[in-house]
Amino acid sequence: MKRTQLSLVVALALGISATSISGGALAQSSGDMKAQIEALQRQLEMLKQRLDKQEAQQAQAPAQAQAAAPAGKGGHEFLERKDSDDVTFLTRGGEVTVYGNLALSLQTSSNGLSGMVVPAGVNHTGDKPVGKGGSLAAIGSDISYVGIKGLQKVGSDNFNFVYQLETQIDVSSVAGTGYSNSASSNTVKGGLTSRNSFIGLASPTWGAVKLGKTDAPYKNSTSRMNAFSGMLGDYSAVMGNSGGDNRVEFGTRLDHSIWYESPNWSGFTVNALFSPGQNRSPSNDNLAAGESDCAGGNAPISGITLGGGGVAACTDGAYGNAASASLAFSSGPLYVTAAYEVHKGVNRTSDQGLASTDPTDIADEAASKIAIQYLLPTKTTVSAIYEKMTRNLPNPSSTVAGNSQNERQRSGYWLAISQALTAKDSLHFGWAHANKALGDPGAHNTTSPLGNGSTANADNAANMYTLAWRHAVDKQLSVYADLAETKNHQYAHYDLGAGGRSITTDCHDATVGDPNYSGNGTCYAGATLKGIELGIAYKF
């Protein structure tokens, strides 16, 4: 009962008392009147105490009802908004979060082919690239995506069922299969669950086991050291990229995988993944079961045909089983990590231009790296990575056209410095270096009896420089400006946006219709690529 009700009762009681007094006051002695008033006051005090107790019980009823709610109900409304900055809603015994990143940029880039003439001593001397070799304006989606993720309690508080469904969003273009003159994909990247998607079990005490597809531990271990993710000059144009193509062999997402993520053990974390090859072919030149693209990217039509019958095959980097692992330690301003990844039985027959699958050109490829990051008292973050990629043929001296078939074996470096200027502004600089490879993965304007660019002792080193400024408008919205340059040595053809990062400056795209190559396009090595962009990103 509310206080207003109590006041009404008290007033009524006093009114009755006053009537009784006025009616019999003259007949009663003053002593009798005093005793009667005191008795009435005691009754009112008892009534007040009863009302206070009833009021307290009514106030406690909602909390008691919530505490007595059946297990799994959570004591809240279904899809009630959780009190957090995330877009998270409570479910019966769990929660679900909607998240995403929407990023677009205005950019202009040059592939460095304007006015280029093939130097003497190489194939097609005097040949000039066909097409627009200078600056080209573009609008690009710098890795935009949306997804949902959540958890559901399983029987007790010891572990949860977890899930995530994520898809790429091509904000400025229409979703479809990927195609260029150097690559073709049957995968629709804008299709549902095209990005990291999984289900699994997770616990704060023993970690998480998940199944699905995900960025490999090798990639994730140093992603925090790449302030240019999705931009021109993303470090993945060089790091983890064994051949300079627009694929990043050791910085990618691995399909049909199972992996383990450890909790934080006194600063240490461990992540390990295994992806079965799901391929009946002993040379891995078939599609993996259940997949639309060859392992490692590209549809079968990007490789060579076998048996003279026009049968397309996965001979352009397809592999069997894959494994990836990382170990990291974090303490205050220090972060240190080491990572390793291996692809078994990588089929590189197309690199050598062979007419059929050559068992001497199928070998394991692996990558390893160590990295360190440190935050200085000046709010300067310094990051450094050393990376080594290998191709392990049974007979390393085996060559085709004088080119080592371990042609993708090389090392590389990444150095980055990020400086917080204000609470909302930061400046970032990055330098990626690809050392000369053991052989040459191939480019069309370089010397080769086969015409595919295989050249012994080719200088295919490269450097990429990136400078970016970012301003945080608020917690979700930011704007940025980015300047990048890739300087290829004579036989290198590294890009500015490999692996789907930003708009790729693909070396083949500018040369459709080149009469020397029957319209298939030419990959001209040795160019200096430059680009600049202004972007906006909203993360929720």
Outline the structure in words.
12% of the residues lie in helices and 39% in strands. It has 2 domains: 3-67; 80-539, Porin (Beta Barrel), CATH 2.40.160. The strands form 4 sheets. It has a 16-stranded antiparallel beta barrel. The protein has a two-stranded antiparallel sheet with strand order 7-8. It has a two-stranded antiparallel sheet with strand order 13-14. Strand 15 (322-331) and strand 16 (334-347) form a beta hairpin. It is mainly beta. The protein has helices spanning 3-24, 30-67, 217-220; strands at residues 80-81, 87-91, 94-110, 135-141, 145-154, 156-168, 177-179, 184-188, 197-203, 207-215, 253-261, 268-275, 305-306, 311-312, 322-331, 334-347, 362-375, 380-392, 399-400, 403-404, 410-420, 425-434, 462-472, 477-488, 528-539. Residues 8-14, 16-27, 65-72, 121-125, 397-402, 448-454 and 509-521 have low confidence and may be disordered. It is elongated, with a radius of gyration of 34 Å.
